[in-house]
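Morning!

This is the sequence you dropped in the shared folder:
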Amino acid sequence: MFGWEFPPHILGGLGTASYGLTKGMAQQEDMEITFCIPKPWGDEDRSFLNIIGMNSVPIAYRDVDWDYVNYRIGKYMDPQLYFDLRNNIYADFNYMHLNDLGCMEFSGRYPDNLHEEINNYSIVAGVVARQQQFDIIHSHDWLTYPAGIHAKQVTGKPLVIHVHATDFDRSRGNVNPTVYSIEKNGMDYADCIMCVSELTRQTVINKYHQNPNKVFTVHNAVTPLAQEILDIVPKKSANEKIVTFLGRITMQKGPEYFVEAAAMVLRRTRNIRFVMAGSGDMMNAMIRLAAERGIADRFHFPGFMKGNQVYEVLKASDVYIMPSVSEPFGISPLEAMQCSVPTIISKQSGCAEILDKCIKTDYWDINAMADAIYSICSNPSLYNYLKEEGKKEVDAITWDKVGVKVRNHYDNVLANYRK
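The structure's back. Tokens below.
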């Protein structure tokens, strides 16, 4: 598998989904997963899969001894693997910017030179593909499609790609032609395309002109909550309700609709606080909008949340809302429902296809959104119904079930490939 992020160092839903999926798949006895990421930090959970850091894979020969390699990268990789990979260097990459081990550095994030890092990652994939033993290649998201194509060309092994989002979702239709071409190329080369929702599947078929027979919907799931999260005691006030938006504050997530709905709710009652947790390029505009609507005293912007902070915020909430304009799936509502928080989602989200015990509105319908928020906050029986039934529903959506679906697709691809 080629991925871009892996917990605990995540910048969005991609890392969370990669972890859940691989952990679910690892329940199968004969499944061995090697997960490649640009830059591991050494504190990843490696109990159920192997991790290769692409920044520790040599692409040019350096005459170094075992002790030095161990000193430099022993925390992240078995030094023997470094030497095994070194034996599979396939071209002279000394013209690239390399370190003392003949490796390329990666930020492990989404830097300004992202396209350069994507290209470099695909070069490294050529060495990894030549050295590793595997049956199938699985590329997560557009960033790793070039790596998957390269691995397929080198080995002749089948390529599965996972579409977690397309540029049509990220840009509200104002598509970046470079990103589109990388996405389309990955889809054209893929033997099987897995999409996180039927919504995304239709985009892949219609906008990227793919054969429907190789495009499948594989919905995401959630990982059961750890005991330390279950033990978090929510900080709640008896006389105030809290409504939370948690995610990137960008065009795709519809933050302005949340602010407008909040303003409508606060005309009816003042005992509700609104929290917009996250960061993004629209954050300052949302702070200004809250001020313009005269609701700044009821609105909080705590910034980017990670790890247990996310669950502390969720558990303190009375309502969770995701008003996304275009959401391929959207894992955060499932996480909220796991924490027994009544949830409102947009009908334009992939998770709406598998969730029933929540309220669904169109992202643009701020009247319906405001009504839903006010109803949950003022009607205890509705609040309790969504709280209890939502948790039951989500607890049944598990990654090991998703892992079985993915395995079935693998088996079909391999069966057809051998013909």
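Headline: The first strand starts at residue 34 and ends at 37.

More detail when I'm at my desk.
O.
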